[in-house]
Write a structure and sequence with these properties.
The complex is a heterotrimer of chains A (about 550), B (about 230) and C (about 325).
Chain A: H1 31-35, H2 40-68, H3 79-115, H4 123-146, H5 159-163, H6 168-195, H7 208-240, H8 253-287, H9 294-307, H10 323-351, H11 360-383, H12 385-391, H13 395-425, H14 431-458, H15 472-502
Helix pairs in contact in A: 2-3, 2-4, 2-15, 3-4, 3-6, 3-7, 3-8, 3-13, 4-6, 6-7, 7-8, 7-9, 8-10, 8-11, 8-13, 9-10, 10-11, 11-13, 11-14, 13-14, 14-15
Chain B: H1 10-45, H2 47-54, H3 59-83, H4 95-135, H5 157-190, H6 198-223
Helix pairs in contact in B: 1-2, 1-5, 1-6, 2-5, 3-4, 3-6, 4-5, 5-6
Chain C: H1 20-53, H2 70-99, E1 106-113, E2 116-120, E3 126-128, E4 130-134, E5 139-145, E6 150-154, E7 159-163, E8 169-173, E9 179-185, E10 198-203, H3 205-213, H4 221-231, H5 234-238, E11 256-258, E12 264-266, H6 269-277, H7 300-318
Parallel strand pairs in C: 1-5, 4-10
Antiparallel strand pairs in C: 1-2, 2-3, 5-8, 6-7, 6-9, 9-10, 11-12
The chains are: A mainly alpha (about 550), B mainly alpha (about 230), C alpha+beta (about 325).
Chain lengths: ~550, ~230, ~325
């Protein structure tokens, strides 16, 4: 409901009837009501808890790596352990955190609400996806507890098939199982968006978050199976030594790299497109104006998803693939940068003539725009063939992808967490603490990763357990930054938990945001809406006239 | 209109199920697609090895199996047509309607049984073929050889057979699942169970057709190269 | 600090590029940095400016905020596209030069294995984890791996090349500065990956020539190759006096070879290696595919020696340099 101090505006719409049934959180308190639920909102919470746990484990691995790297000598852990740490960090963060994060936690919760549906198209399949994810994740963790994996998350052959002593096949099994979870989640979203939109809600009236989840789901369904078959072949090679990828038996190591990156490059777009969708919801709300260039933004999402399938060879410029192939992949990689650039310009233009508030979600969203821009630009550096010859396999690339995955996706995840926290839990988080955490994350992140661009240019290779003394100064800066970043990550754990008990209760629409999810109570009832909502006239119908604080303690 | 726990209309359920199966098949296409990618890579780099290797697959069994699968797709399509009469109606059925439904159930059951039987025939022939391949030494590994050919197998032949076993193995697994699903539906149809409904038969048939199409793509790649001259 | 003034200077922050390719790469990187930095700065300024000017409560003009502008969208689509394609073309051109090895490049056989580099000069001088090269002369590294994938990376040259088992990869460079430069392995290859480091020493040509002749000499690679050519029985078929019809190997490297299936290629190190290990892969037109494979009978180092012998036969025919 819109309440303004000066201009009363049109009569506000009737509040949602309280006879809608209990909120989804109150609808059953037994373990079975959670672990056998079909409710997309409960499944989203289950995902969020598991994702947080995996993020913590992956984060601990990173912390140990940064402690080791504060000094040039390899004196904190053994070289073998270090390899297991960077592998665990990569495998967990990519497959158990980033890929599921925004789609499975926020996509699951919000997509049905945003399109006026009661649930996803296949609710039981959704629960099945969660179980696959958790079982797959447990298998991956088992490979760590059994003794670990030292191949790197990229599993390059013949090291992973012939020389590694790690628990490779166990880890591969876990990843393949998690992969099936991704495929089924993507399938569910695609069918839901096609068939469950409320009447009158055409494609170009959908929130950009829904477009983003849709584009992501296309990639999940089409790319993940190639990963599955690649890892199955890898496991077969390791178990039976049949000679697909191992030259000693007549195989080709580059075949593995082609197959692996055919999935793993589109996978990075799975990691960033949902984040872009989140930012496209937050920025208009806190700038109090319509997103600039809605159609271009929607098409850009689809373009990134499509072109993203064609660029995988840019991971292989020095691998020994033909120079011609390198040129084709380089050119396509420059093409895929164009829609991303368009999106950054559109978000910037959305600030023009807005009425901007800097609540925590907006801080995270603006942080995303800045850090994603830097990360994306360094992508141009590595897409340029002659430059990549120097920069590939160094800390430059590490910094490039962390700017996008952490500076981009993780910041967007936190932004989403704060923006939709009132909707999901019915409580407001403490704003001061949230802004502090956002500041610490932004500052800590830059201190951690900017020096790594310089380290990469200087020539420090990746996956080095010990390094030559001239690299120490930048490494110390990076490790210092990591400690600040860690605090920034930990703070929300505390104040968000606190808010569940003692936070101010939130009304249906504390941010005065548009979007159907804000037209139902906070938290929503199990069936989402008491009665079928009408398709909104304007998905971003913000007006900048509002002057009052959006925080309403007693609900509206 | 309340949203609580109301079953969705039949058409929407049908559309959802079909659309869901199409999306699933897209992911399956890419699952096999990874192997086709590897095949393309191998064929580009080691054409002679692939041709030499492909001459040793059993083209007779392979061709018979192709005919078997194509025929089975005919019967599953007939089952789909027969199942159209099983659409749930709003009013309780009269005598004529009940008789029509009974005969439809029977036809659906017969067609599905024939399809499943043809699927089983494929599996039996495949099993015979696998045994023969094994005896001919066509399993990559230290004992790999191309039947009775003298000398070491050319480069690429081992990769060809890795792909042969994995592609046909994966196909066989999918086919077995399909046979199982169709058998379950056939049993349900012979018992005139309510859960045997057109959307479900459609979706199962779609899956079966996909398995058939994969085979149609595998057949020329695995059985026909190297035999032209 | 590395002042680039000869052997013995300490290693410090990466100095200016020390190879011709590296100098071009630095220019490209500088331009990229300036262009991206400018745009990033402009965006940052714009975002901060908008944030301040249009903050809630400020007295700015907010009438008719535009929600789209297809001309603007087109402009900021086509302009980045043009810039990107320009950068692509420049970088691709420089990259293409890396595949064109100068004919007078000094060949060095490099073997990467867990966890060391063995480098062999033509005259038999072997180095472990060190590479001495003369200033100003192109050097061609023929890279082989005995086990996993490694990567030969010299930051000062701004160059790296993966070393892949089962084939040779090639990296060439022309050093433009004297000094000692770090050599790293840049592809994870096992526990001691981070210890697989060494140095490249660029010397004055006269110093290099002196260095080459001093120090422990093993029989030249080519001489060892000739020994193997005889002891493995290659000469039985490939010798001029043999009754078996087999291709002549003298001067093979660099020669155009016509294959049985109608293709032709230029014989390079990979071709010779494949012919020894996988003789049925590319059979020469007019010959029967009767050559047996020597896989399992020759090590990577044997192969390097055989290739050096074949290269030497070409030098003798053209009266080339030693």
């Amino acid at each position: 409901m819109n309440t303004v101090t000066v201009d009363r505006g049109p009569a506000p719409p009737a509040p949602p009837p309280q006879s809608a049934g209990p909120s989804y959180l109150d609808d059953g308190h037994t373990l079975a009501s959670w672990f056998a639920t079909h409710d997309h909102k409960r499944i989203a919470i289950l995902y969020a808890i598991a994702i947080t746990a995996f993020f913590a484990i992956g984060g601990i691995a990173a912390a140990m790596m940064r402690i080791e790297l504060a000094t040039p000598a390899g004196d904190f852990v053994s070289d073998d352990t270090y390899a297991k740490l960077f592998t665990a960090h990569g495998v967990i963060m990519v497959w158990l955190f980033l890929i599921p994060s925004i789609p499975s936690a926020f996509g699951n919760f919000l997509v049905p609400l945003m399109i006026g549906a009661r649930d996803l198209a296949f609710p039981r399949l959704n629960l099945g996806s969660w179980y696959l994810y958790v079982v797959g994740g447990a298998i991956v963790l088992a490979s760590l507890f059994l003794g670990g994996l030292d191949t790197g998350w990229t599993f390059y052959t013949p090291y992973s098939t012939m020389f590694s002593n790690g628990w490779v096949v166990v880890a591969l099994t876990g990843v393949v199982v998690v992969g099936f979870s991704s495929i089924l989640t993507g399938l569910n979203f695609i069918v839901t968006v096609h068939t469950r939109r409320v009447p009158g809600l055409g494609w170009f009236r959908l929130p950009l978050f829904v477009w983003a989840i849709y584009a992501t789901s296309l990639i999940l369904v089409l790319a993940t199976p190639v990963l599955a078959i690649t890892l199955i072949l890898l496991a077969a090679e390791r178990l039976f030594q049949i000679g697909i990828f191992d030259p000693a038996h007549g195989g080709d190591p580059l075949l593995f790299q082609h197959m692996f990156w055919f999935y793993s490059h589109p996978a990075v777009y799975v990691m960033v497109l949902p984040a872009m969708g989140v930012v496209s919801e937050i920025v208009p709300c806190f700038a109090r104006r319509r997103i600039f260039g809605y159609r271009f933004m929607a098409y850009a999402l689809l373009a990134i998803a499509a072109i993203g399938f064609l660029v995988w060879g840019h991971h292989m410029f020095v691998s020994g693939q033909s120079p011609t192939a390198g040129m084709v992949f380089s050119m396509l990689s420059f093409l895929v940068a164009v829609p991303s650039a368009i999106k950054v310009f559109n978000w910037t233009a959305t600030l023009y003539k807005g009425s901007i508030r800097f609540d925590a979600p907006m801080l995270y969203a603006l942080g995303f725009v800045g850090l994603f821009t830097i990360g994306g630009m360094t992508g141009l550096f590595v897409a340029a063939l002659a430059a990549d010859v120097h920069l590939t396999d160094t800390y430059f690339v590490i910094s490039h992808f962390h700017y996008i995955m952490v500076g981009g996706s993780v910041l967007a995840y936190f932004g989403a967490l704060h923006f939709w926290w009132p909707k999901i839990t019915g409580r407001m988080y403490p704003e001061i603490w949230a802004r502090m955490a956002a500041g610490l994350v932004f500052f800590g992140f830059n201190l951690t990763f900017f020096p790594q661009y310089l380290l990469g240019y200087e020539g420090m290779p990746r996956r080095y357990h010990a390094y030559v003394p001239e690299f120490q100064a930048l490494n110390v800066l990076s490790s210092a930054g990591a400690s600040i970043l860690a605090i920034g990550y930990l703070l929300p754990l505390f104040y968000l938990a606190w808010s569940l008990r003692a936070g101010a209760r939130a009304g249906p629409n504390p941010w005065q945001a548009t979007g159907l999810e804000w037209q139902t109570s906070s938290p929503p009832p199990t069936e989402n809406f008491a009665s079928l909502p009408a398709a909104p006239d304007d998905v971003y119908g913000y007006t900048p006239r509002l002057g009052r604080s959006p925080l309403h303690v007693d609900g509206e | 209109m309340s949203m609580a726990n109301e079953p969705l209309p039949f058409e929407l359920r049908h559309e959802t199920a079909q659309f869901g199966m199409w999306v699933f098949l897209a992911s399956e296409a890419l699952f096999f697609g990874g192997l086709f990618l590897a095949y393309l890579y191998g064929r580009t780099h080691w054409a002679e090895g692939f041709d030499a290797a492909a001459r040793h697959t059993d083209v007779v069994i392979g061709s018979i199996n192709t005919a078997v699968l194509l025929t089975s797709s005919l019967f599953v399509a007939l089952a789909v047509v027969a199942a159209r009469a099983l659409r749930p109606s709003d009013r309780p059925p009269g005598d004529a309607e009940r008789a029509r439904r009974r005969s439809a159930h029977r036809r659906v059951a017969v067609f599905l049984w024939i399809t499943a039987a043809l699927g089983v025939a494929f599996l039996v022939l495949k099993g015979i073929e696998y045994r023969k391949d094994w005896l001919d030494g066509l399993v990559p590994g230290t004992a790999f050889r191309l039947g009775d050919e003298a000398g070491a197998p050319p480069v690429g032949a081992a990769l060809f057979y890795v792909l042969y076993w994995v592609m046909t193995g994966l196909h066989t697994v999918h086919l077995t699942i399909g046979v199982g699903v169709l058998a379950v539906f056939a049993v349900g149809a012979s018992r005139e169970a309510d859960w045997v409904q057109p959307p479900r038969i459609d979706v199962a048939a779609l899956y079966w057709h996909f398995v058939d199409v994969v085979w149609i793509l595998l057949y020329p790649l695995l059985y026909l190269p190297g035999r032209a001259g | 600090m590395n002042d680039g003034n000869g052997v013995g200077a300490g290693f410090g922050w990466l100095g200016p590029a020390a190879s011709s390719a590296g100098e071009r790469a630095d220019l490209l990187l500088l331009v990229l940095f300036v262009v991206c930095g400018t745009v990033a700065l402009a965006l940052a300024v714009l975002i901060v400016w908008f944030s301040v000017r249009y903050r809630r409560g400020s007295k700015a003009d907010r009438s008719n905020p535009p929600s789209n502008d297809w001309r603007l969208e087109t402009a900021w689509t086509l302009t980045p596209l043009a810039i990107f394609l320009g950068i692509f073309a420049w970088a691709a051109w420089d990259y293409a030069q890396l595949s064109i090895v100068p004919a007078d490049a000094l060949p060095i056989q490099v073997l990467g294995k867990q966890w060391m580099w063995k480098l062999d000069h033509r005259n038999g001088r072997r180095e472990i984890n060190e590479l001495h090269v003369p200033l100003g002369r192109p050097v061609k590294l023929v890279l082989a791996s005995e086990d996993a994938i490694h990567s030969f990376f010299v930051p000062a040259f701004r160059l790296k090349q993966d070393v892949v088992p089962g084939r040779y990869t090639v990296l060439w460079f022309r050093p433009t500065r004297l000094g000692e430069f770090r050599l790293f392995c840049a592809e994870f290859c096992g526990a001691e990956h981070s210890k697989m480091i060494g140095r490249v020493v660029v010397m004055q040509p006269a110093d290099y020539a002196r260095w080459l002749e001093s120090g422990p000499l093993r029989p030249g690679l080519a001489a060892r190759g000739f020994e193997l050519y005889r002891s493995l029985g290659c000469s039985g078929c490939h010798d001029e006096r043999s009754t078996v019809h087999a291709p002549r190997l003298q001067g093979l490297l660099g020669r155009v070879v016509h294959l049985q299936d109608g293709r032709s290629l230029v014989a390079d190190e990979n071709y010779v290696r494949d012919s020894i290990l996988l003789p049925k892969k590319d059979v020469v037109a007019g010959f029967d595919p009767v050559m047996p494979s020597f896989a399992g009978q020759v090590t990577e180092e044997d192969l390097q020696a055989l290739i050096e012998w074949v290269r030497a036969t070409g030098d003798q025919r053209t009266g080339g340099r030693g």
